[in-house]
């Protein structure tokens, strides 16, 4: 019978558990957990891989949030008022606080929705659908602000 020391020495020199950039790239491109292995696991909502559409929605919503913050500040300069009382109070303190709260709240909401994208809300809708709805609403809001900005300029 071989000793443990001899068995360890016979192992491949490449250790699979070592972290390398190849591991990161390989894991990103060829993720293994795209679907559940067993029917019993259908309730499990957390996987290693998310659909590229979620990346598009998350990135787009962050860009729309930044555009919304910029347009809101520009419209305030032109005489409009902030209807959201929380954002109005933050804006009264400082522009940096307003922008920080706006972007942080959006980023946190996106993070939660992407994390729970495969979960079902009220056992009917996948949570990822909410990202599409919020993206559409945010797009309309930014378009609305742009129209007002062009009319006031």
Molecular structure report:
The protein has helices spanning 4-9, 21-29, 52-77, 85-93, 95-115, 128-152, and strands spanning 120-121, 125-126. The protein has 153 residues and is mainly alpha-helical. The chain has one domain. It has a two-stranded antiparallel sheet. The radius of gyration is 24 Å and the shape is elongated.
Tags for this model:
single chain, 153 residues, mainly alpha, two-stranded antiparallel ribbon, 6 helices, 63% helix, elongated
Structural class: mainly alpha
* Global geometry: elongated
Number of strands: 2
Q: Give the rounded overall mean pLDDT.
A: 78
Specify the oligomeric state.
Answer: single chain
Taken together, the total number of domains comes to 1
Low-confidence parts lasting 5 or more residues at pLDDT below 50? none
Q: Could you tell me how far the N terminus lies from the C terminus, measured between alpha carbons in angstroms?
A: 86 Å
Biggest sheet layout: 2 strands, antiparallel
Order of helices and strands: HHHHHEEH
Strand order of the largest sheet: 1-2
Helix content: 55-70%
Tally of helical segments: 6
Rg is 24 Å
Strand fraction equals under 5%
